[in-house]
Amino acid sequence: MSQTHTKPETRRASSASSNGTPDPVEQAAQLVRPNTIAGNQLPSWFLFATAAIGAVAGFVISWLVTGFQINYALWFVFSAAVFVVVSYLITRAKQGKRKATDGLWRNLVYVAFVIALIPLVSVIWSVTADGVRGITAAGFFTEDMSQNASQSRERQIHEGERPMGGGVLHAIIGSLLITLTATVISVPIGLLTSIYLVEYSRGGPLSRGITFFVDVMTGIPSIVAGLFGAAAVQVVLSIGNQIGLWSYGPGNYRMGLTAAVALSVLMIPVVVRTTEEMLRVVPNELREASYALGVRKWRTILKVVIPTAISGIAAGVTLAIARVIGETAPILLTAGMLNRVNWDMLNDAMMTLPVYIYWTFTHPVGVGELTYLSEQRAWGAALVLIMIVMALNLIARIIATIFAPKKTGR
Amino acid sequence: MTTTSEPKTTDKRTNTLVSSDKAGAAVDRGFAALAKFAGIFILIILAFVALFLSWNSGGALYQEDEGLIIGRFLNYAWPFALGTVVVAVLALVMSAPVAIGVALYISHYAPPRASKTIGYIIDLLAAIPSVVYGAWGMFVLAPAMVPLYRWLNQWLYTWPQENLGFGIPLFAGSPGLGQNIFTASVVLAVMVLPIISSVCREIFIQTPKLHEEAALALGATRWEMIKMAVFPFARAGVISGIMLGLGRALGETMAVVMVVSGLGFQWSIISAGNSTIPREIALNFGETAPNSERWHQLIALGLVLFIITLIVNMIARWIVSRHKEFSGAN
Amino acid sequence: MSKSITAKDLNVYYGDFLAVEGVNVEIAARSVTAFIGPSGCGKTTFLRTLNRMHEVLPGARVEGQLLLDQDDIYGPGVDPVTVRAMVGMVFQRPNPFPTMSIRENVLAGYKLNGARLSRSQSDDIAESALRGANLWEEVKDRLDQPGSGLSGGQQQRLCIARTIAVKPDVILMDEPCSALDPISTLAIEDLIAELKEQFTVVIVTHNMQQAARVSEKTAFFNIAGTGKPGKLIEYDDTATIFNNPSNEQTERYVSGKFG
C-alpha cells in the first residue's frame, strides 16, 4: 500500500506505538498489510457498476468513432477497455497497487472468457438461424442431389427455371457407412493394442516404441492421413491389377473404403490412448482374483478386465467417432464427392456430410440470388453434423457417468 | 475345475499337475500373439505412412527424363510452407493468451459449482467440425473483419506511405471480401483455443493445494498466488499445450480452404493471396492424375507438412519430459 | 479333496533379487497353518509361490522343489492355471467382481472358464458354497444383487465362497481379516475352523492372537535387514511357537519385543 493513499487515521494508529519515530520494520510491513480487516473494502456492486460504465462509455465512443453508427465489435472492444482501465484506476486509488494489480488481472481473465464465448455464440447462431430453414425444407432428409445434376446452368439462366430441391440423404448415408467402416477397422486394432500394452507387455522396447509412435500418430495432420489413404490404396489397386486380382482404372482409388482407411489412421491412436487409460484403471486385485480361480489370462481379460472397463472404453470409442465424423479434408482426398446415394464401399466416390457442406458452400447450385436455397441446405447440413457430433459427445458423457465401474471393496 | 485331472494316478512318477488342457494353453498363447500383432500392426501402418509419403515424394525431386529437379520443387513449395507457418503462428499469438485466461477463469476464478459446466461449454468449441468453422469464417467473420482491414490499411500503410514515404507491407492492398490469411488465422485461433485451454486447465487444477494455500497464507492476493504457485508449476504444461495447438493449426485444412482466396506469395496479410500446404493439397489433389509429377509434388508437400508437425510435437514432448519431475504435466 | 504341501530348499527371486531363501516346510492336509513375521519378511511372497501367483509380477522365479502331495508344482510342463485351480487364494482386501451379482461371483470359477452348468447344478453349487462360507442365510434373498453392495466382512466371505465353489485342495489366505472389523474377523476365524475339515488352509496374518486362535502349526519368517532375503526361522506346533519357541528371534517376536 503506498503511503499517499493510506487514510490518515489508520496511519496514526499504527505509528503511535513507535513513539512518533516510525519503526522501519513496521513501515515495511505496512506496504503489504492492511491495518483493518474491513478497511478500504470496495462495495460489492463495484464490479457491476464499472462494467455498466464501461458498456455505456464503450457505446458512446464506438458511436462517435464510427460516425454515429452502431458497431458491435467496436462497442465490445471499447467497453472492455474502459471497464478494465476504470476499475484499475479506482481500485488503485482506494486500495493501493497490489489490490489494483490483482483486480486488473482478474478483469483481464474475465474479458478473455467473454472473448472465447463470442465465436461460440456466433457460430451456433449462424448455423441454427439458417440451418433450421435448411432442414425444414421439403426433401432435405429424403432426397439426394441427383435431380439437380440434370438441370443445367444454362436452363436455369435461359428458361428461368428455379433450382430444384434436393437433400443430404446421400451424404448422411456416406458419412455413416464410412465412419462405421473406420470404426470396425480401428476398434479391434486399437483395443488389442491397448490390451497388449496393459496386460502383456512388461515395459519392454516394443511397448515403449508403440506408445511413442501412437503419440506420433496423434499428431498426423488429417490431410496427410488422407494422402496416405489415397496413395496406399492406389498402390494396392495397381498391384492387384498387375496380378490380375481385379481391374480398377487409374484414379479409381476414390471409394468409401479408402476414406475409411484414412480415417482409421486418425482414429486408431485415439482408441489406443483412451482404452489404455481405462484398462489401467481396472484394479489388479480383480485380475488376481480371477487367476486365483484358475482362469486363463485371455478369459480373465475378456470376461473380467474388459467388462469392468467397458463404460470407459465405450465412451472413448464414441468420442473417437465424434472426432472423425466431422473430418473433411481426408475424405475429400479419398472418397471425393458424388451427388447420389452410393451404398457400395468398393466402387465409385461417396458423398459425406462434411464434404457436402464444403462443396455446397463453395459451389452453390443455381444462379444469382437463387443460390440462397443451396446455402440454406449447406447450413442445414452443418446443423445436422453439429447435432450428430454433440449427441455423440453427450452419449459418451452419459455412458461414462452412468455405467462407471463400481469400486470393489468400500 | 475344468482343467484338473480328477482320477488320481497310482503311478507316482507321473506328475498329475501336468495339464491335459493343451487347447486352453494354446488359446492363451494365441490371444497374446494377437494382441502383440495388433501393436506391431500399428507400427507397420506408421511405417507405411512414412514409406508411401517418401516414396511418392521421390517423383517431385527426380524425373527420369530431367534428372534431379529439387530446385523446381523448392521453388514451388516454399510459399506454401511459409504461409502455413505464418497462419499457424498468427493464430497462436491470438489464441494462447485468451486460452490461458479462459483456463485460469475456469480453474481459479469461476464459481466452483459453475466451473464444470463452463468447461463443458468451452469443450463444445472443440466439438464443432472444422468445415463448419470454415463456413462461419467465409460468411460471417470475413465480412465482419473488412472494416478492421480497411482501417489497418489506411493508418499503417496508406497514411505512412503518403506522409513518411514508407508503409508497412503487411497491410498493403485492398481487403476485398476479407478472404485473406489474417481471417484464416482468426478462425484457426478459435479452433485451437479449446485445445490449449483444456490442457492448461488440467494443469492449473493439478497445482498442489498446499502451494496455493502457502501463498495465500502469506497474505498474497489471488493474482500473486497464481504468479507464485500456479504458473511455475504449470509452465511446462502450458508450453506443451500451446505446441499441441500449433501442431493442430499447422495441419488444419478446411478453414483455410474456405476462408482464403488467392495463390501466390505476397507480403500483405490483409488482402487476397498466400496459401498453405493443406489448402494446396485439398484444392488440387482431386484433379491430379495418379503418378504424375503434380501428384508427386502434392504428396511431397504433405511430407513436408508431416515433418513440420512432427518436429513441433517432438519439441512439445521434449519440454514436457524435461519438466516432468517438477510438475504434473505428463 | 485335500492335499499336503512340501517345500524343499525353496528360493524365490524377483529378477536378481533373492526375496525368500531356503524354505523347508511340510504342511499337512486338512490343517491350518499360519505364517507370521514382520512386514517385508517374505511370508506373502512365499504364500504366493504356493499357487504360482507370484509369476504375475515380472521377473519372478523360483528355485528348489515345491510338492503338492507328490506332484511338483514347478515341474516341467505344469501349467500355472492348473495349479491355481487346485490351490485357491483369498486376498487381503475383499475383491468381488464388480460387474457380477452375488450368485455370479460364487459361480465365477466356472463361468469365467466357460463351463456350461444347468440351472439346478449352478443353484446347488452356489448354495453349498455360500453355506460353506457361512453366508447363505444373509444373502439367499438377494443373490441377483451386485456383490459390491455387501459389507466388507460379507464380501470377504463371498470371496471365500467363490474360492471353495471350485473345490480346491488348498486354500491360501493372505491377511484375510486385515481390512475387516473385529466382528467380521470373528466370523472369518470361525469359518476357517470349519474349512479345515475339508481343505488344507494356509493363512498369512499380522495378528498373533489370530494365529494362535486358528492355526495348528505356525511358521515364523524374519528378515535380517532391507535388501536381505526373508528366511523361515522356525516352524512348529502353534502352542510351541507361542509358549516355548526354540529360537531367540521367535521368542522376541511373539513376546512383542520387536518388529
> So what's the CATH class of the domain at 5-95 and 170-254 in chain C?
Alpha Beta
- Indicate the proportion of strand residues of chain C: 25-35%
Average pLDDT number of chain C: 89
Task: Please compute the radius of gyration of chain A using only Cα atoms.
Answer: 32 Å
Main sheet summary of chain A: none
Keywords:
heterotrimer, A: mainly alpha, MetI-like fold, 2 domains, 16 helices, disordered N terminus, C: 259 residues, alpha/beta, Rossmann fold, 34% helix
Task: Provide structural commentary.
The complex is a heterotrimer of chains A (410), B (330) and C (259). Chain A has 410 residues and is an all-alpha fold. Chain A is built from 16 helices and no strands. Chain A folds into two domains: 3-7 and 40-118, no CATH class; 153-402, MetI-like (MetI-like fold, Orthogonal Bundle). Chain A has helices at 8-15, 24-32, 46-65, 72-95, 97-136, 146-149, 153-159, 169-200, 205-218, 222-242, 256-281, 284-292, 297-325, 329-334, 353-362, 371-402. In chain A, helix 9 crosses helix 11 and helix 15 (353-362) runs antiparallel to helix 16. The two termini of chain A are 52 Å apart. Residues 1-18 of chain A have low confidence and may be disordered. With 330 residues, chain B is mainly α. Chain B has a single domain (75-326), classed as Orthogonal Bundle (MetI-like fold). In chain B, 73% of the residues lie in helices and 1% in strands. Chain B has helices at 22-61, 70-109, 112-127, 130-164, 181-206, 209-217, 222-251, 254-259, 277-284, 293-323, and strands at residues 62-63, 67-68. The longest helix of chain B has 40 residues, at 22-61. Chain B starts with 21 loop residues before the first helix and ends in a 7-residue tail after the last helix. With 259 residues, chain C is an alpha/beta fold. Chain C is built from eleven helices and ten strands. Chain C has a ten-stranded mixed sheet with strand order 5-4-1-2-10-9-3-8-7-6, with helices on both faces.
